[in-house]
Specification:
- The chain is mostly helical.
- It is built from 8 helices and no strands.
- Helix content is about 85%, strand content about 0%.
- The longest helix has about 40 residues.
- The protein is globular.
Length: about 190
């Protein structure tokens, strides 16, 4: 059970469903509620498929390219740090208009849910806690994001705009701290 929570928490931060929620609401604004449900399902299925595929072949791909785990940890940590700092320092997360039929797959499923943060974190967690625990933690986090999207209107009323921003900034700060830890562990692994 401890391994699950040690996987769940960094993945929760990496998925950043609360931070993505305002973009989801903006992108799905004006879309028929029935279609929004299909968008949510499409985003969950896409994100889960991409994350599981990357977990399955990511290590082999790195090996094929001659990239060590310490290289990937350092690069992934730096990337996560840049992403988190961008979110921390920006006033609003970027928003853009997309085709309603593909909205669930792109950009919601990939790269907003299954983006660099989730892919890097999940691959590294499989090395520490194993595939079964990490797969369950990834699936639970993506499903939680789907539930949050499904009840987006209620969540927005509860948190309010200020609450959404605060939660998003805290999640970005946690992601930055996790990124620094990844770089530190990568450097330690390199020198060990």
């Amino acid at each position: 059970m401890k391994a699950f929570w040690l996987s769940f928490v960094p993945l929760f931060v990496a998925v950043d469903a609360i931070g993505v929620l305002p973009m989801f609401m903006s992108l799905s604004q004006g879309i028929d509620p029935g279609h929004v449900r299909r968008v949510v399902i499409q985003s969950v299925i896409t994100a889960l498929a991409v994350a599981l595929l990357f977990m399955a072949v990511g290590t082999a791909l790195l090996h094929l390219l001659g990239i060590t785990l310490s290289d990937f940890m350092i690069a992934g940590g730096i990337l996560l740090f840049v992403i988190s700092m961008s979110d921390l320092l920006s006033h609003e997360k970027s928003q853009r208009r997309v085709d309603p039929d593909s909205l669930g797959a792109v950009p919601l499923g990939v790269p907003l849910l299954a983006g660099p943060a989730l892919l890097t974190t999940s691959m590294l967690l499989t090395k520490v806690h194993g595939y079964p625990v990490t797969v369950i933690a990834v699936a639970v986090n993506i499903l939680l994001a789907g539930v949050l999207f499904r009840f987006a209107g209620s969540v927005q009323r509860i948190l309010g705009k200020t609450g959404e921003k605060i939660v998003s900034k805290i999640a970005s700060l946690l992601l930055a701290a996790y990124a620094v830890m990844m770089v530190r562990r990568g450097v330690e692994l390199f020198f060990s």
